[in-house]
Structures are given as C-alpha cells and as structure tokens.
Amino acid sequence: MGKDRMQNGYGSGSEPGSPNGHHPFREHKQASRQSSTELFDLASKVMLIGDSGVGKTCLLVRFKDGAFLSGSFISTVGIDFRNKVVDVDGTKVKLQIWDTAGQERFRSVTHAYYRDAHALLLLYDVTNKASFDNIRAWLGEINEYAQEDVVIMLLGNKSDSTADRVIRTEDGEKLAKEYSVAFMETSAKTGMNVDLAFMAVARDLKMKKTRKPTEPKFNVADYVNQEKKTGGCCS
Amino acid sequence: MAERKKEADHLPTSESDQDDFIEPDPPVVTNQAVADTFVNIDYEDLVNPDYDSHPSGYIHEIVRQGSHDDDDEPRVAVSSVSDVSTGEESSEDHTEISTKEISQALDEVSKLQHPEVSLEDEEEIDEVDTQEWRQRKKHVFILSQAGKPVYTRFGNEDKLVTVMGVMSALVSFVQDSKDLVRFMVAGDHKFVFLVREHLILVCVSHGAESSQQILLHLSYVYNQILSVLTFSTLHRIFKQRRNYDLRRLLTGAEKFLDNLLNMMDTEPGMLLGAVRCLPLDSQVRDNIAQTIVQNAKVKDLVFALILANNQLVTLVRMKKYFLHPMDLHLIINLVNASESFKAAESWTPICLPKFDSSGFLQAHISYLDDRCETCLLLLSVDRESFFILSECRNKIKERLVKYNALKAISDSLMKTSYSIQQCGISDLRHFLYKSRHMAQFTSPELEAPYLSETEQERLCGLYFYLHHRIHTSARPLKILYTVGPHETLLGWVTQSFELYAVFGPLVTKVAAIQAINKLLRWVKREEDRLFIPNHVTF
C-alpha cells in the first residue's frame, strides 16, 4: 500500500524540507484521464484556497489547459485533484494541485489537506472586498493547520476587470508585506502571471531539494517580485 | 362524460371482475434477498419528527470495527436516537384551521398571492412581487425555527422575510395549542408544512400532488440539507445560536436543492421511493460489480456505485449496510447537479441521512469515460483514503475498458431505454413498475402523445393522482381503475410490486386487465435486464 501511495505523490518520507529528503526519483506515473504518462523528478503538493467565487478553478484551468472557463459559475464540490508536470531548468517537477471549494462548510475537509501541502496559493478577487477582508482569516487558518515552511502566495485574481476593481494593488502588497508572503495580481482570463505563480512554487521546491548549504536560500517573494508583470494598462 | 371521472374502486375483498387479476408469485427470492428489502415510505411516518433523523451511528461503528476486526458482538441495528421534538405528535385527523388569528395571517399570505392587492406600491418591483413569481406552480420555502429565511425555490430569501415570518407565526401558533400544523388549503393552493427540530419547510403548490406527496418531497428537501450539513452540525449550530443565518453554511448548496426539486417534478423515482436501473445484460452487470469488488478491496469502503444518466448501473456494499433509496436519490442528485466532477477526480464529504445522519462519508467521485456519462462513486469513512481510492478507481477503469463494459454502458445509454412498443401491448401508453423489495422501478421512454412539456407534466399529474388514490391513508386501495377524459388509468399494488399504467381513453376494463397481465409477464421476462436483484457485497 505504501508503494501505491508513492506512485501518486508523496510518501511520508519525501516531504518537502524533510532533512533527509530523498534524491530525485524518476517514476512512471499511472496513466489517467487527467494527464498522459510523464516522468518527473520531484513532486509537489499545491493547494488553491480562498473564498468561494474568487476564481480558484479558473486559475487552475488556465494554468493546466491554457483555457478560460467563461460563462456559468461552476462551483467546486469538496476538493478536486489534478496533476501537471512542469520543467524547471531541466528538472521535471510534478505539481499535484488540489483545488478546494471555498464554501465555509468544506473548511473542515480542506484543513486536513493543509498539513502536507508544500505550497498554498491564497486567492482573493480584486473586485470583491469581502474576499480580500477574509484573507486575514485564511492566513490565520494556514498558521494553525499548515506546516511551518509552507510556501504561501497571495494572489489578487481578476485583475483584468479594471472597471469593477475595488482592491488596489497597493492594498494587496501591503497585506502581503505585513504577513511576509509573496504577492502578485493575476488574471485567469488573460493568463497574466498565472504560470508564474505555479512556476515559482515549482522552483522553490527544486531549490529546497537541490540547494547546497553554502548557497543562499531561495526566496519566493523576491523571485516573484523580479518576474511578475504588473497589470494596470492591459485591459 | 368527459367532465366526470368514472371510477371503480376495487377493495381487495370484493370478488367481482377480479378473476383476471392473478397475482403472480412473488419473485423467487434467492439468497434471501430480504436483507435488501426496504420498508416502504409510509406517509404516516412522515409526520413523526423522528422519521428523518436516525443517527444510528453507522459511521462510528465502521470506524470502531476497524480497531477490533471481526469482533462479532451483537449490534443494535437501528438505535434511533429520538429527537427532542418541539412539535407534538399530532392527532391523526387534520388540524382544522378556523381561528381568527390564523385566518388573518392567511389573509396576509394570500394577499401576496394575488397581484391585484399589492401590499407596497411604493417599493421598487422585486421578483417576489411579480406576477410570474406568484404563478409559480410549486414554491418551497425553508426557514429556521426562529423564522429566519434559509431558502426559497424562486426569488430572493431577503425579500421574503415577511412571508416567512407569517409562516413561522402559523407554525408556532398551532404549536401553542400542543398541536402541529400539517397543511392548509386556500383556493386551489395547498400550503404544506413539515416541521423539524430546527427547520420549518413549507411548500405552496397548485400542482397535481396531494399534500402527503408534497410532504414526502419536503422530507427529501430536508434530507438534502442534512446531506450537506449532517444533523449533528445543524443541531449544534442552532443549539448555540437560535437565530443563526443558515445560508452561510449552505452557500453553494442551493443548486442541489434547486436540482432536487426540479427532478421531483419530472422523475417518478422519488415519489415511488425507488431508483431506475440502467437496462443492462445481467452478465455484463455482474462483471462490472465483480470488477469493483476485486479492485476496491479497501478497508472502510462502505459503498461503491456506478451511475449513468441518473440511473444505477451497479452497487456494491459492505456486508450489513444498505443504501436506502432516499439516500441513493441524494447521491444521484449530487452527481446530477454538479458540473465540477467532470473536470477532475473529486473528494467530497456527503452525509446520507438514512444511513447515518450524524456524520459524513467521504466520496471519491470521478467519471470513467471522456464523455462524462459513467460516474464512479467510492464512499468511505476514512478521510485519508483519497489516494488509495484513486488507485482503485484507475484499476477499475482499466479493467472495465478491457472488458468492454464501459462500451456496454454507453451503448445502453444511446439506446434511450426502451419503447413501449417492445412490450407488445396495444393501447398501453405508458407505465411505471416498481419492484417493492428491490426498491427499483422501470418505465418506458416517453413517446407520443407525451412529447411536449405540458403533456409530460399532465402525465406526471396522472401518476400523482393514481399514486395518491391508492396510497391515501384514509382508504388505501389495492386496485384502482379510473377513466378520465383523455386516458384510462389502472393502478395495482401487491406485496411485491406496484404498477401504474396509462391506457388510451377507449380501452375497456377487461382489455386493460388483460393488458397488465401481459405486461407483468413481459416485465418478468425482462427482469434481469431492468433490475438489479441483489447488490454484491465486498
């Protein structure tokens, strides 16, 4: 049974940041509808969290399939699970992405999965003040349930809707600074910064696994600041 | 002639005209399938506040079982924890509403029903003030005991605070006299109340359903809420704060309630307390079930089932545990109402109130084919078993593809069930046949003249009428033959089956009786294909 688990992701021994982290392992992923058979060196668990309707599923679909889910609102029930393998400087990193339902009643279910998440993408909707105000509560939950060294990235989604925007970029930046987490604005509709968010996570994992003690620590927030595009004019 | 219905009610004791009614032997129950027998939904039970909450603690039982395996200590099968009932048991006869206060309150409500008496002219027009809203056939409202709006089928709850206030006043007024309001009739509208410990459910309908049938629908709605929250959560929340706004916890679940109500308007399954099975060669079905058994040998997996287009393909269950048709309908509704399962493997909590209303089962839900028709559900009590079940799912899918079983399922779906012509009975237009001990039913495709939506609705109404006449608690019937202006109806209920048949208007009684005897023989012949006699166990 332990072997079964390994095929689909982390065994308990290969958790990110564990002192005797396993060497990169090449594995043959089970063929499934979600993704074709691909090889990978590292696997990383990423969770998308945030209020209902902020665009978690849309962000994921944009990243995974390069498409935008327009039209009706498909609310996620419980937790969805998808894989994508990305290439970070020649290293194949499999991102296991858990897309969660934002509704309050699913919180107890999703909490259980914070624990072994390597990265949490915390989303709010720049056109919805309540979703931004709830970010503090989300961060509180993360502190309570997630691992110490979890990578947290705050994402202000729907940045393309300039007309309806109520949360300024500065507000997001300020909040991110206060909690010292990485921050950027994204748009699942235009694709802005979507890949960057996931790639930063993959890169962080790779650095954690391969970093020599003498090298400086990889900082997601700095990396993101370097790479991110700012929205604004592109509407 | 046309305006008056000619009816001939046959009581079981009367011998006239009944010679042709040969009650077929109850199907040979091999392997003592009695275990699969479901107690029919008894309308009288519905008014009992205990009816819907049986926190029988199965989930804990299974979890505990894991800790000391195969310990065969005797267990109490159903230890229903009785609710702290707020509403008293009402006497059997219907509560007469004649008091002045009530009629005043009723006036309030009926004012809202009639557009010409507009209450607030100066207010901007809300949806609830529109003609369209008032003329909806079947309204469903849910409010907390404190009178706070929880859900409305049409319009916005916020705009209905007054109406819901009146409803809660009605309920508590009757409760004051140690009684329970069950329904009221105003013109052609029925107001049906289902009062549960923390919630009041009200249906206002001018459709064909009887008030008892509406009560059944309301109890489905109540169970749907439990399915999302569990009874324990509901209880805990309202115990802490009586005026809690339950909508907070139900966000995103409205679609399940909407979908359930829409399904109940068109699908006879919930009325019958039975599910429809996908017609499938019994060998293919066995193969599918065995594939699941062999590839999902996982501790704590309670139920595994495959659904295709709201029909049951197969169900595998843990020994000793049964899936009640009401719970199964909630599962079907969950799959039917959600688009998100089509995108990826999902892991979601679901409470099955008949199984255990105190806790959640965890459901691994995924479609097995690219067209998203065949859905596999694995229900476990273990919250950590996602990856294990995901692995099982991949193996099951692989085997089913290999055995061409997925193709058999999609072929069966393509064929759109079966035509009434296949039964080879002239004059028979449509029928519903329910096997009582299997809690499953079958019916042919809807064909002319029931192609338009209004005609289908009318047909549904006929079934509601027939079902109501047969099951009415005041005078239950075994056989009912009734001639209407457009069709002749025949209903027959025995120990083992319920049959509701719709004939053309000119059929004679003798011909109709011959026809259903023929139909019963046909059903018997096709039984293996149309029904699942025994659910395989792990």
From TrEMBL, chain A:
Under which EC number(s) is this enzyme classified? 3.6.5.2
Known SUPFAM superfamilies for this protein? P-loop containing nucleoside triphosphate hydrolases
Pfam families attached here?
Ras
**Entries under SMART domains matching the protein:** ARF, RAB, RAN, RAS, RHO
Q: Does the keyword GTP-binding apply?
A: yes
Q: Which PROSITE patterns match?
A: RAB, RAS, RHO
Please list the cofactors this protein needs. Mg(2+)
Catalysis performed (reactions): GTP + H2O = GDP + phosphate + H(+)
Gene Ontology molecular function: any one: metal ion binding
Please list where the region (Disordered) is annotated.
Answer: 1-30
**Principal EC category:** hydrolase
Please provide the record's keywords in A-Z order.
GTP-binding, Hydrolase, Lipoprotein, Magnesium, Metal-binding, Nucleotide-binding, Prenylation, Protein transport, Transport
Q: What does the similarity note say?
A: Belongs to the small GTPase superfamily. Rab family.
The protein, known as:
small monomeric GTPase
Q: Which organism is it from?
A: Mizuhopecten yessoensis (Japanese scallop)
TrEMBL record, chain B:
Domain annotation FUZ/MON1/HPS1 third Longin: ranges: 427-527
What's its job?
A: Plays an important role in membrane trafficking through the secretory apparatus.
Composition bias of kind Basic and acidic residues appears in 1-12
One biological process GO term for this chain?
A: protein targeting to vacuole
FUZ/MON1/HPS1 second Longin domain: which residues? 299-396
Where does the FUZ/MON1/HPS1 first Longin domain lie?
A: 138-260
What spans are recorded as compositionally biased (Polar residues)? 79-88
Q: Where is this region: Disordered?
A: 1-29, 66-98
Q: What is this protein called?
A: Vacuolar fusion protein MON1 homolog
- Give an example GO cellular component term for this record: Mon1-Ccz1 complex
**Family, per the entry?**
Belongs to the MON1/SAND family.
